[in-house]
Fold these 4 entries.
Entry 1:
Amino acid sequence: MPTRVEVDIQIDRPTDEVFAYLSNFENNPRWQKGMDTCTITSDGEFGVGSTYDQVAHMANRQVLSSFKVIDYQPGRRVKATTTTSSFPITFTRVVDPHEGGSRVRAIIEGDATGFFKLLSPIINVMVRRSIGADYERLKHLLENQPD
């Protein structure tokens, strides 16, 4: 059963600051619960083709994933997809100016395999709750940083 989660949240920080934080995937463990590590694996300037590995845990299982950036519009949009994972996903993060701050929209699409596919209905509920809470955590983190 495929999963699609959309998040739309206002963050009271400048768009360039929010996008810089969101597009640096090594920040993911700071605001995404269940994310253990995230390491950029490609050299050179960040953009389409950049890669990273992450280690997360879900349902008491470790999830090792490799990602590749497939769309990048500096300051506005980043999209990446798994190249290897037991929980394949594609996500898009878009940051737009909104009422003196930033509007962050995220779309996460995935389709579990193996062990996670067996638990698909339960996993879908867990993923939806977790992602919503993650973006609330991101909002709190960024809005409470010193200027």
Entry 2:
Amino acid sequence: MQAPFTQDQQLPAALTAVDGQTVSTFSNPDYPGYSARVKQLRDFCDNQSRSYSGYIDLEARHLFFYFFESRSLPEEDPVLLWLTGGPGCSSSLSAFMEMGPCNIHDAKGPAYNSYSWNTKTNLIFLDQPIGTGFSYAEHGEQVTRTEDGAEDIVNFVSMFFETFSQFKGRPFHIAGSSYGGRYIPVYASAIYDANRLAAAQGRTPINLQSILLGNGITDSSSMASTYYDMSCTNASLPPALPISTCVRMKQALPRCRTWIKAACDDHFDDISCNAAHQFCRDKLEAPFIGTGRNIYDMSQPCNGTIAETICYPLTKEISKWLDRSDVRDVLGVSEYPYNFTMCSPKVFSRFRSTLDMHRGSKTYVSELLERGIRVLVYVGNYDWTCNWLGNLAWTNTLQWAQGEEFAAKQLGEWTVDGHRAGLTKTAGSLTFATVDQAGHMASSSSSRRR
């Protein structure tokens, strides 16, 4: 295990004032109306690296983040921004249940996670859009569409690198899961485009290198027609539904595909597209959900309800822990006036009202690939709701320079320590991979240990 960091490691002059007792505030004349509030997390859960929490304040919008420096070589390792999905789910979910430096397994609080992604990267967890987790806004400001949230992300990333200036120019990657498959291609495209203005103004561009989409919902049209296969064939596990139910589902499948293609893909019509997806949900999704199985891991029952615990009661324990006054004092969010909500129903409803989830992001992926940005699409093969068949389908239909080459390739095994870990294929800058025996949280340490 690496020795704990030493306090005399070199920091930018501004950050030397940041400590674990008070919140330090930073501003930059190049970003009028924007500022950063930062607190160092001493003895928070991991003494192998420096860690921080804070807010990037974008006028009336306040985006909360955790930042965990690399346990290896923070002065050389890349920077990775992680976004959890929902829409409206806090990145605390991933920080404390998946790949963060500490996981919470029970009411006792955080425990060291040796599989954390900050073993080799400087890792940011961000609560977004506003209204998610500890992020908030004044004056009733809201975000209701992914494209509208992109400006906040560009400004957040820019202010982050101004505040933590020792990381400027470092290779930068954006990763996320679930609805992150919708967010990330849009946000990465906005960052790429904003680099032109940054360069013209003499600022250091964001060194965007890749995006990683884990169990994403990048193209809901492709996903909608895969629920029959996931429920009624041996795609991942033996069929979960009775033959009579599967017959009815198979009969509804052609109409689902045709209706979504006409109303959502060929020409987007709000009313008809919404009706098409509702038809597909009723005919193809509802039967499996009704079994009581975990839609995020078909091999397990749903513990609790999807609405209250997303099938994982541990989310309640994490929320209770984050609501403790002593924890809030440590994080610098003691003035946040609301109870912590792991997944905000208000944010979800706002995005649903604009049909944002039916407006796919795969065209953004194509454009990023054309510009040399690497893309990894990875999926736990036990995930039902954002499954591997749907993600394979949309990656196979991407229109880009090497799209035909990618589509023509067959899946082959990839291995870890000589053992099969899943299926994969690559062409150019695009890689698709499944993770055997993993569910929706394929990035979690439990997936690594299976």
Entry 3:
Amino acid sequence: MTSTSSDRRERAVVLTADQVGVLGELATPELRTGHWTRLGEASLLGDRVTEGVLGDVAERVRSAATAEGYSVGWAQGRRDAAAIAADERRQQAVAHAAEETRREGEHVAAVEALSRAADDLRAQLALLADRVERQATDVAWRITEALVGREVAVATGPDVVRRVLAVLPTHPLVRVRLHPELAADPAVRELTDHGVEIVGDPHLGRADALVEADGSVVDLRIDQAMGRVHAALFAPTEVQA
């Protein structure tokens, strides 16, 4: 039993040349470390100087990138703010223009309404003036009719004679036509003293007279005189002018 144990301890393993080569090629663990140098050549891995230089470079790059990013962000922010402000100004300008257009439209509408109201007022005033004028003319005509009617009602022979004498021409007369009752009035004798021929005419009123001389006639009939007054009162304005 003892001999067997010795054989086991003394037994050796003999390796061939190929096996030795394979064992030599087995990777050994890398014990060096480096934050920045691990990204470069293996000979620089863990080099403190290189790590320091690369760390400084990375810090400067990071600072520069941060500054550039801040600058770009600031510029972009300013551009965005300017764009927003410009858009707000455009919106305000559009709103202002719309408000001005609305106000202008309201102003034009108000002016047109006032113009129409003024035209309507002028038309109403013209109608009112015409109505007042017609009423005044009617009143004047009625007053005239009343006054003339009163004068005719109380007219006497001397009144008619005075009217005839007022229109007697200077040349010789032919005749004077009067109402038959008036022709016999004693006051008419004054006309015969002037060489006037008195003719009774039943178609004439008591206050009427027709003075005939050398083919001309002076019409002193009341209704004819009233007709002329009526025509003058009620004639259109342009005709009167």
Entry 4:
Amino acid sequence: MAKGTKRARYTSATKRELPNITFDRATDIVISGKIAEGLRERTIIDYKKIVRYFTEWLTQKYEDMEYVNDVTIEHLRAYIHYLRYERRRYEGHTNIDATKQPVGLSETTVNIAIRTLTAYFNYLYAEGFIDPNPVERLKLIKQDVDMTNNFTNEEVARILEQPEQRDFVGFRDYVGISLLLDSGLRIGELVGLTVDEIDFSAPQIVLGGGRTKGRYFRIVPISTYCAKLLKQLIEENRAHFDTDSVFVSSLGDQLTTNHFNKRLKFYAERAGIKTKKVTAHVYRHTWAKIMIVDKKIDIYTVQKMGGWKDIRTLRRYVQLSTEDLRRSHDEGSPLMAIRDSRRKRI
């Protein structure tokens, strides 16, 4: 190198010459990588769907958009705005009339899309397919804390009264609802439950890594009452169907998450619960709240039983109502404790 000359330094601002990659090719690259990382099939399906929604919107709105290298943070922010304020819920769904649905997706749904797209572009950047990284400064939207994301004990009692246990479907649904409240299982874990995953001697449910959200082996304790219900349901299944699935339709097919969520909503409406969101996930919130707030089980034990990877997620789910706060205050007030001790001395 000649004296007095300086070597050009590479910085993050330096534009690298990279080959143009189509969206289809980029998606194939990311999906192949995620499969190699061991992501569950359900997660892979969700990845494909969310990325497809984004690329379809992008190519429709920007006709000259052809390569993933051309995506900027401005495009991503415009898409987030579209999801929040323009996209109709259930748009493109084959079984739901989207024209009757409200406009604007929930904050939770939008954040799921942001997380997926962030992982998508981070992978392409880390593997050297794009530069710069368009999601480097992309942030999640702020979510309001939902104080009604669980049921009260009175609502749970009313719901449990609704299934007609004298017929197969009603009894199956009663067992499913009981198991959700007894174990905190995710809906996918429940509808996919098989006979060999139940240890009746413990009693407990044993889920392998391929069956849980974080691919962690998990043991889920259940009550003897719930174990008895599961035994009865399995006997009923075997009397009519050749299946190892625990929760099946009247034709013997494994239940889908969508079908079971519809059943949960049906029973909640019959119980007079019409203003709250009703899904299996709300039952999971309810289970966690009762375990921690009512039963005083420590949050780390509940985290392990429920399979939460991040305890902050669990804390967000367990919101205290005004009634909970009042009861906790009355039970723990230092002033009232001192007054009570003085009364006892008198």
